[in-house]
Batch of 4 targets.
Target 1
Amino acid sequence: MKKIETYNERSYKGHLTVLLANIIWGLNAPIAKNALNHFSAFSVTTFRMVGAALAFWGLSFFLPKEKTAKEDRIRIFFASLFAIVFNQGLFIFGLSKTSPIDASIITTTAPIITMIVSAIFLKEPITNKKILGVIVGAIGAITLILSGQANTESISSGVGNILILTAQFSFAMYLTLFRDLITKYSPVTISKWLFLYASLCFLPLSYNDLLTTHYNNITTNAWLQLGFVVFGATFLSYLLIMTAQKMLRPTLVSMYNNVQPIVATLLALALGMDKMGWDKGVAIMLVFIGVYIVTQSKSKSDLKNTP
């Protein structure tokens, strides 16, 4: 007799998978930053998309076949733009211009952005707590962007931070607008189509970079770093995050982004890639406080059930 999972068991698995995914993404910021010393941002992004597409399609051959409706494939194409093309593309380009610590701190704005997008498209109520949390979190993000502009690469770092912030908005749009697709199909099925469409969109933009890269000069460490980005921070992490999305609400999933700056900071500092100044500390505190305030506010369903 097949065992039926309880809500608590599903919730526990959801929390565990999203935690592991964000630990991997936290490691990805400094590791991908190193890989960008040997590969262009276009090349890294293309390797991520194509590598993940091949991995998910390969894995799907060993799993029960799951058909997708034609009308859903059209929506999955647009979902791939928000979840993969814009999100990963903007993140890698932003990372190439800023530090891994700044990049990972900015990812903590995802819950705030997700709540705003949910209010606009899902008509989630905008409470006083949400407004306060958004303001506090926004001040934290702006503080970080301005602190990036204070160093020797001021313009480049500021642009990089803005690109990464935009990447978070793109992923929030995906979580909110395509929630029904995420829960309708298995993580492998939805992922294989997302990455296939993303690869087809990005290859025309990056083929020149791929052809002009001097592969003979690339070190073994650089290939290993790229391998982690492709199969760890893309294939494995997306498999985990897609699993979590079927078990947890979008806001809960995005809350775990707070793990990323902790992991990235520890690794970046250990590798001597960055320094932790007081301004970054203030930015982290403000973003975390903003996230906490926003996520403590009631959802639309909570208000309906309130007597």
Target 2
Amino acid sequence: MYAGGRLLLMQLQVLLVAGTHGNEINGIWLFEQCEKSPFLINTHGIKTIKVIGNPEAKKAGTRYIDNDLNRSFLAESFSSMNSSNLEGVRANQLVRLYGNQGENPCQIVLDFHTTTASMGSCLVVYGRREADLALASLIQNRLGLPIYLHETDKKQTGFLVESWPCGLVIEIGPIGQGLLNSKIISQTKLILENFLEQIQQVKNLNLLFPEKLIIHRHIKSIDFPRDEEGHIDGYVHSLRQSKDWQPLKKNDELFYKLNGETIRFEEDESFIPVFINEAAYMEKNIAMSFTKRELWKFKPEWKQSLIDLIN
């Protein structure tokens, strides 16, 4: 980038997003407090921009207005502005303002979410971008957070973080939609500060990457049992509820119907369920997602990709 014949080096900026879903309010509340008292968050010298992803949904107290904002970052959306779709317009706006080629460019985005499922805190990585995996490995090494690798799901696309060179989703729970909770707020602050500290360490080339990382790779999602008219006619079994991250074995209980029928896990291969009975996913016909736990060797090219991006 040039100005007056001088080459201007792009300063590293990290975009911090809360309220991509308007009823996930803990991150929003923390960001609003930071506006009043900027030193509440230790940024470790990293320049950050904090934004509310979907301010209109926040005002309405709903997940979204027209469409899920976290499914609205699609190439076809960016090629044409559809003024009737609030989230499509907002996705365009965020990329235009803060994308890597935007008016106020950011190279990394951290998107803070909460979940009603008993997931605790975890990182969500979309695809296998090298810088994403390197940054996620630093946080797993530091805080021990599970990494959920979401890929090969053609029904679930258009995620916010995919529109930046490097980006991760942070899921924190369990917490009901529209509720503030001290533990969730504290976890959000802790994870955010650790991310910024690790980014600063990479910037200073003071690196401590792990040799391996644990990945929970997305395999598929399953729906609730339904009747012939498509209505849900069974619920998550009591022995499966709140058992995120716990391996399934054949014949384990999944769902229960009031007529006494139990629907069981019939796969020969063991999977690990996540987002069990997530409230926001009922509209997406997802009762839970199955993952496979894998141990990956850290690759040097991941490290170099993150270094090149930050420096």
Target 3
Amino acid sequence: MQCSDPDPVEQKKTTDTNLEKVITIRNLYKAFGNFEVLKDVNLDLYKGENLVVLGKSGTGKSVLIKILVGLLTCDSGEVIVLKKHVDHITYKELLELRLKVGFSFQNSALYDSMTVAENLKFPLVRNQRKLGKAEVNRSVEEVLDAVGLLATLNQMPSELSGGQRKRVGIARTLILQPEIMLYDEPTAGLDPITCEDINSLINEVQERYHTSSIIITHDLTCAKAVGNRVAILLDGKFERQGTFEEVFNTDDDRVKPFYDYNFIQ
């Protein structure tokens, strides 16, 4: 379900490009056999910025994210995340880097056999073994409170709505205090009201935790509400980047259908 266009939506201010770059991608190329997915991709993510990545299904958005965290390797090009060259670091360094990059999965990826609290404790205890029980509990309560779901502490995931599951998934990512957040289709499958709630939460996370984020979506209402910048992936390249208005102020037949599908249909 596509979310309706809120009226009005104020475009977030464009990021000051004098800020530090936390992700730099240059001349990235990735193919699977004869199928070229990413061709000469160039992109920057600035410190404290929400960057929205748009593209049709199968255009390589998820492949790009996997390359950023070392789950896939590029065929050529350069990928720098938090000053680390992802293709040229040891496995130990890669694991340390991944702790600084939080990934919010499209399906929330919660363990159904664990309570909400246990889902949040799991990554914290596994990665920060020196924390005491009181510190762990305090961290769990803090992030649940931040996403507005402290009352769900002892509930099972099956008792939560789709929007609540999304929020808990974001809380579980935040508990490790990442510097970068990667959101994969954060509003997919949600009703318009819940979409607005998730959009507001993404902005609140940016402001409260000072995260730098990449938001992958095909929902233009989400893109307009949360993006400091928007980059649209076309034919394996980022052909258009800028504010929401700058990207969609075009007669390009590859771009117009995105806008028409979301706001005119």
Target 4
Amino acid sequence: MKTDKKILVVSFQSLTANSGAGMARLGYYLSEQLDKRGVLQDFIVYSKGKFNTSFKSSPVSYWSRHILFLLNFLDKKLHFAPYKFRYVQELIFDFLCVNKVTKDTGILFVTQPYLPRTFRKAKKLGIEIIFIPANPEENYICNIVTEEQNKLNIHAVDAYTYPKRIQLFNESVNYIDKVIGTYPTVYETYKNAAYKGQVIKMIGHLKPDFKPLTIDNKEVTTGTFVVGYLAHTVALKGLHYLIEAWKMLMQEHTEYNIKLLIAGKVDTAIEQYINEKYPSLPKTEKLGRIPDIKEFYKQLHLFVVPSLIDGGPYTALEAAHYAVPVVITENCGSAELLSRNESGCSIVPIRDAAAIKNEIEKAYNNRSASLKMGMNAKHNLDTYRMDELITDIANYLENNLIKINAN
């Protein structure tokens, strides 16, 4: 008697109390829906801990939690480069994940691509592999970061440019049958890449689990206008273009009652570049790591995301949650959500300090319009239904599975 094959969902991250970390969150809600349809084989994560789910979910190995503990212990002692630490974790995950793929698997659905061993086994068993990326195509990211580092005369390796990791990606992606692009940036970069498989556009966003927050009326301020930036800054994040914009603004308008807050860790190479090129920036405060995210956003009148490329920057959605208008580059996936309906953001080209400067100037001189844009951003975020994206993906996978089981 023939047994229908099912869908194996795999996410590199781990479970949390009510969902999952990173892309495991998408895997969590998708697996929940697939299970209700009777087509889920299992939801595989790196570590499950003591968290249970209403559907079948498993750690990639009984030992994975202990392996992660050991790796973190060694990291504290030996201080691995973050990109090497991540690379080792990915290799181990792939080594363990191979055993989760069986002849009962009809579709292998993954949220990260660094699984060449697992993919090879899936191909031998005739299993379809479908990948949903969180980030734009890795070679595109590597090229744009390398180009930027060369412009800045910075020679630093990170997760985006580590040759072994790029090689691992290129080895893995050749096995993947289909890529689902949920952000415009992801879809376009995979569509234009050397990738030979099918790229499917299914626009949607991974909405954060924000606590409900009602903001009815924000008053137009006549005091200091506060502009914010927050990221773990590498060359990719484009902070230097925001700072160049700020320098231009300060030279043209010394009379402005305005302040720039720069928050988050800045990698050493970028920090050195900024300190050398911009040794003195008026009306600027570098905050480093911030203990209270809510208080940071509450004091802002404008938030800037100058990234050269970014899938769906979480910080832009955080700003929208607090009704802060956003200036964001065209290469950021979150711009698609925030610009819906009445736009909650201003979209600028990448590497364009003058455009950023103009948008800050416009917001400063049109505070009521800027405030309204912030409320629009919050409306777009609050009314967006992530469950519709999950349903679309589940429908697509189930229809594919039906065809597989019919053959």
